[in-house]
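Handout, section 4.2: multi-component inputs.
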Amino acid sequence: MNENLFASFITPTLMGLPIIILIIAFPNILFPSPNRLINNRLVSFQQWLIQLVLKQMMTMHNLKGRTWSLMLISLIMFIGSTNLLGLLPHSFTPTTQLSMNLGMAIPLWAGAVITGFRHKTKASLAHFLPQGTPIPLIPMLVIIETISLFIQPMALAVRLTANITAGHLLMHLIGGATLVLTSISTPTAMITFIILVLLTVLEFAVALIQAYVFTLLVSLYLHDNT
Amino acid sequence: GEGSTPGQPGVLGGAAFPFASPRFQIQPKPKLYVCTIQLEQQYTRGAPLGLRPSGSYSNTTSRENCFYASIPPSVDHPPATSSEFCASSREEKKKIARRKQKRTPCSLLARLVSRHLPLAPAVCVRGHRDAKPAAWTSADHALTGGTFCRRHSGVLQATRIFHTGQPRLAPLPPLPEYGGKVRLGLIPEEFFQFLYPKTGVTGPYMLGTGLILYFLSKEIYVITPETFSTISIVGLLVYVIKKYGASIGEFIDNLNEQKIAQLEEVKQASIKQIQDAIELEKAQQALVQKRHYLFDVQRNNIAMALEVTYRERLHKVYKEVKNRLDYHISVQNMMHRKEQEHMINWVEKHVVQSISAQQEKETIAKCIADLQLLAKKAQAQPVM
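Output:
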């Protein structure tokens, strides 16, 4: 049972060859590039969606922040599609691996912070001290703000990992409960199955929301620093 | 040739393919809708193994897709679209290009593999359901056993040319509007057609049911907790797609139509503007034809003005002359009158001077006598 529970999270290999690269690269082919004026439905739909997301997300940035548009939109598309694909049976979700999420979070956060420090040094340093703090508390508050700053990438990565992993685990566990209960008492199994269905709906939502949250936070860090 | 004994697989340099007997006739080309690698079978062509994973291929079934992948058109079909007309000349150009191409390692690999695995990855690029393949040329000679005669060319799209030379990006061939027909959302219709002659309508379903039961009973597919999550996820997906699929499709079609409508509007506005300009120009040209009226009127005006001035001056002259003449006449009249008056005054004066006192008395007495007479006459005749 333990082995089975975590089996879906091990790095996938096929006959000794790591196919994790292919799995990470797979969502790319689900987003064909539009090469005509009027495209097929898939491409048109994606174009419309991306435009919507772009408008919603990048209006609050200034010119310097908008240079990050490509990065942020690719980020949200990647995380969203990877999470949604992970809901398919027997599939592997790269975003369950902390390594990958750290690899996404740390460079983006560091880029935003370093940009801020480079171009607006005083303002970036000023973030360490909220307005209107009483003077005796200043040293402690600076320390706390520093810690909160450095925890941002960790929080980004761990949030995404934990949410997706927890969702997958819950689905597996409740599925297991349903499996066991079918032979014990069918009505209870039905109830458990209904719970599973509701959880699935939640998982779909979580998949998209987490992508959104990740990207939004990165863009927020960016906004603070440009 | 066809010399092998029936039932025995031909010698293929090592690979024994069970269906490779001459008896096994493949019916018109199974349409295998699996996206895999197309092997290069041409020996003289040096084109590399081309795999172009592209989402747009997943829905296309048209012939034109072949031409985008530079597959030559079949000889049997008359060209149905303009892209096919282009393709024939494209093919010639490709032949020339191919001859000049070098033998890359990919092509050598392809040749090597193709010698030993003639039919194994025998799949086609998605979507050329209508195209019959061109004849297999040089690969025939390389394989002993004669198992691959021309009528088997339906199985392996052997002579398809794939990605030779530069892809032509403009004009793009038209994409089909709708994807191929599928049953149960997964299995293409052609599979059912393929099985129909042998197993009828229920054949594929029996096959599917049998396979599923086989996998379940032999525990090749194990029922795990994941099975239940699969059921819930797939059930949810199917429900959502059945319920909202059509409306989303319409919405997307609307998006495209709006785009087209916008551009159409611009085009129409431009056309209208130009048409208005043309009409304006024509109207102005017509006006130019009538410009002579204007000039005539002006000429007339000027003539009239001249006439009027002339007559005015004439009149003025006349008046002046008359004025002078009148002056002279009035002078004359005045002199005449003056003379008359003078004469009359002189005559009166002298007459009055000539009247003596006695004459005056006589005259007055005569007047009184006359008056008395008159008075008597008047009394005699009553006044009416």
